[in-house]
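Can't paste images in this forum, so I'm doing it all in text. The chain is below; anyone willing to post the predicted C-alpha cells underneath?
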Amino acid sequence: MPRVSRWYVRTAWAHFLVAITWGALLLTYKAWPGLGAWVWRLRGWHIEALLVGWGTQMILGVLFWWLPKLPGGVSRGPQAPVWLAYGLLNAGVAAVVVAHTWGWGDGLRWGRALEMLAGLTFAVNAWPRIRPLVRAPARPRRTSP
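Text version of the structure:
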C-alpha cells in the first residue's frame, strides 16, 4: 500500500473514532438530558466526521491504492496532487466543523469548496489510471460432427 494511501486510511479511522465518540455523547444526552444542551453542538461535527472525514477519506485512500498503475505498470503517477487533495479534504472538514460548532456562517461555504477542490484534484490525478476492462475474446465452441 502506498504511503499516501496509508495516511488517508489512518486519518479516516481517526475521524471514525471521533464520530462514534460524538455519536455516543449524543445518544447519552437523549437518555440523560442533564448533560447540557452543549452536546448538540457536536452533531454537525459527528455528521461531517462520519460522512466526509471517514467515508470519503477511506474511499479515496483505498481508490488510490486499487486503481491500476499507469500504462507500463511501474507508477501510479505523481503523488503531489494526491497529498494536496488530502490536505484540502482535511482542511475542508475542519472548516465545516468549526462552522457547525461555533456558528461561523462562511465556514460552511469555504469548507465545502475545499472538499470539492480536493475531489477534483484527486480525480485529475486518478483519471489517466481509469481504463476499460479488456476481456479476452471468447473461444468459438467446437461442435461435434
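The chain has one domain: 3-129. Residues 3-129 form one domain.
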